[in-house]
Amino acid sequence: DVKVTQSSRYLVKRTGEKVFLECVQDMDHENMFWYRQDPGLGLRLIYFSYDVKMKEKGDIPEGYSVSREKKERFSLILESASTNQTSMYLCASGRSNYGYTFGSGTRLTVV
Amino acid sequence: DQQVKQNSPSLSVQEGRISILNCDYTNSMFDYFLWYKKYPAEGPTFLISISSIKDKNEDGRFTVFLNKSAKHLSLHIVPSQPGDSAVYFCAASARTGTASKLTFGTGTRLQVTL
Known about the structure:
Chain A is mainly β. Chain A has strands spanning 4-6, 10-13, 19-25, 31-38, 42-51, 54-57, 64-70, 73-78, 87-94, 101-102, 106-110.
């Protein structure tokens, strides 16, 4: 089974901090994604990557950046955390065009 | 602009009965549709999918129906079980040059009661 591992289940950070969320997959997938889940809004795509060092903006990239230096690792960076970035962050990866495997999520609270 | 819509935020069904979850989409470029199930504090897990060349796909108790002309799909769960209680997300995919990304609906919370 494909495994997508997110480094932290819960994080509490202060406003203005730089925050790193890490995601690692073990199946050599080209495509990796970062989503955030908020009540009533579903899952919204922040950024995705289709290859090492390649990235594309999703629907809500403002306030975020990403890094993909190795194929198995995709990092989401909050340059200066704000309270409206309090959310559940979900990483996903996949090889084919369709259907991806998600990690367990990181619940980030910015105070 | 919500391209994938799930208009029912919640649904309650008795154990043993049929659960029908609905999803509408607006983008005619979508060519693959998926349903994910999500329990609290866990990531979504893939449930079932359907290609736009089909109108039905079945996997055990789960069946997905696609009506392309109406831009509508539905997930049927028969019979419903208490363990099916979760949030269900509809998702759609369209190739966008470099990669296919999934666009999700807002989710429907299914509660299966005893």
